Every structure is written in C-alpha cells, then in structure tokens.
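Structural prep section.
Before we set up the soaks we want a predicted structure of the protein with S-adenosylmethionine in place, mainly to decide which crystallisation condition to try first. Input record follows.
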Amino acid sequence: MRETKRILVLAEGAQYRDAARAVSARFAGQVAVLPEGVAFEQALVQWRASRVGEPDSHARGDSRGDSRSRGGCRGDSRGDCSSRGDCRGDCRGDAVGEHTLAVRVGADGMSLIDLEPPHRCLRVDFAQPRLLRRLRGCAGREPLVHALRGKAARATTVLDATAGLGVDTAIAASRGLRVIAVERHAVLAALLRDGLSRASLDERTRSIAERITLMEADATAVLRDLGAANEPCVAYLDPMFADAAHKSALPSGAMQLVRALLHQEGASPQAENVADLLEAARAAAPRVVVKRPRTAPPLAGSAPHHSVRERTCRFDVYVR
Ligand SMILES: C[S@@+](CC[C@H](N)C(=O)[O-])C[C@H]1O[C@@H](n2cnc3c(N)ncnc32)[C@H](O)[C@@H]1O
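Run finished without errors. Recording the tokens verbatim:
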C-alpha cells in the first residue's frame, strides 16, 4: 500500500486562495495557488520544472505562483475535463511533489483532478444533463428507488451509509425520500458538500438538495449510535466493489479517480469493514438495501430476503 500523503489543494487563481485554505483545513491539505489564464497542463509542466533541485519544496506549503490560469473543470460526477491555453506566466509552485491527485478550487467549485494527463477531473454536479434527466425521472424506472421503497412504498427516510459522490443519494432524494448521506472520506465529503451547496442554489436541483443531509462520519459508528427514535426507514450500502471491472453508480473514469484517491491516502476499498457495516445497518434499520455487482455473492455471505435487478448490478434487500 502506498504511503499516505497530504492532499494537494490547488486554488485556481489567487482569489480562491482563502477558499482553498478553508477546504484544505478540513483534511490537513496543502495549498498551492495556480496561475490564472494558463492551461492546467502547462502550469504543471512549469511547476515540476521549477522544483528540480529543490530538496524539500514539497513540505513548504503555499505556492508563490501568480500567473493566470484559464479553463477549468468541465467534467462532473460522470465525466472528464480538459484545459486549454498557453502558459504565459510565472508558474512557480512548491507543492506538486510526487502527488498524483489534487483537489482544485475555482469558479466552478471543487473538483478532484488527476495531475497526470489527460487530467481527468470530477466534481459533484447534480445539474449535469445525464444525471439531471435521471433526477427528473426521464430515464425510466429506477430499480434503486424500487428497492429502497419496497412494494408498500412506506419508506420516507434513507440513511445512505456510503454516499461517495452522491449519485445514488440524489436519485433517492429526487423521488421524495429524505436522505442522510454519510461519507467518511474527508475529500469525498468535501466534494459532495460543495456539490450540494451548488445544487441548493440551482432551481432545477434545489428541492433535491433540500432533502439531503450530509454527515462526514463513519457510518458504522453512526448506525450503532442511532437510537430507536432516530431509526431510518431504510439503510442503503454501496461499498466499493472489490473488482474494478464491476459497475458502480459512477462512470468508470470517475470511479478510477475515487479508487486512486482512496489508495493515495493509504486506504483501500478492501479495508472497508463491510461485514460490520452490514451488521450495524441491519440492527439499526428495518430495511437494508445493498448494491452488489450482478453476479457477485451477497455481501459478507449474508443471504438477502430478495433482490431487485438492473442491467449492471442488483440491489439485495434485507427486511426485519
Ligand atoms: C462505491 S462508493 C459509493 C458511491 C455512491 N453510491 C455514489 O452514488 O456516488 C463507496 C463510498 O463509501 C464510502 N464508505 C465506505 N465505508 C464507509 C463507512 N463505513 N462510512 C462512511 N462511508 C464509507 C467510501 O469512502 C466511498 O466513498
């Protein structure tokens, strides 16, 4: 397993320095200011060049770069992005080091970006056209919602114990369910928080965002601490599939970045103690739904009551 690194937070221009600092404070990140009006790739090339011969530049904190950067994340929770333009400035930076991923803070909010070409980037964007279509119900039946609600459709509150980038959370909320979204990874929780705050300002997604409460915490502990009065109707688990070939709610490019982030920080999907999570969920909620690859055995070998299938995965339903 790779050594844990501090996360690099890139402010896209000096005006985002404070926002980047506020974000980085949540996960002891390291802030560097990107030049404005310069292509991301060009700025990185110069950064790296500027580091040659600097023995410990990686530990020094804020970059002193002050030229301009153009472009930005045009991707979202389901896409890649790219930046264009020529470097015209002093792109000196101190913090790139051997980082391979960074969090970027700029005009379009927060995104996770791969520092290696093609600089894949992802951010939480509920207004992204394909997701928005699903949220509006234009993409047909959502087996997830069917599994969460059950035939009697009594469920009103879902505890999404593995919120990730919030795609499943948003789908559940778009059908009127209140969702407590729990994410334990500080960077993923920060990306989701950022996406939710943008969603709450957009009239197309405001009502969905209003139904979602985000908690940055370990869901196993949250579920164990819930008293009977706070019992959610349904607990939902979508643990990272051990096999990268299996489909998740996120498109494969985005999921690769999420996996790389977890590995960069020394955590691995396998480190998730899914048996404990399932046990805590079953103790806390009368209905538990677990997303599984279509042909995988049930989580922790625990046979479900029934399953709801979709093209790429299935939802195992446990009822008390
Ligand atoms: C496959 S992703 C979930 C994707 C999510 N369903 C979506 O639509 O974006 C799994 C996520 O669960 C989180 N996770 C795993 N175990 C957790 C736990 N015990 N508490 C909170 N979050 C957890 C991981 O950090 C990761 O972000």
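Observations: The two ends are 39 Å apart (CA to CA).
Flagged for discussion at group meeting.
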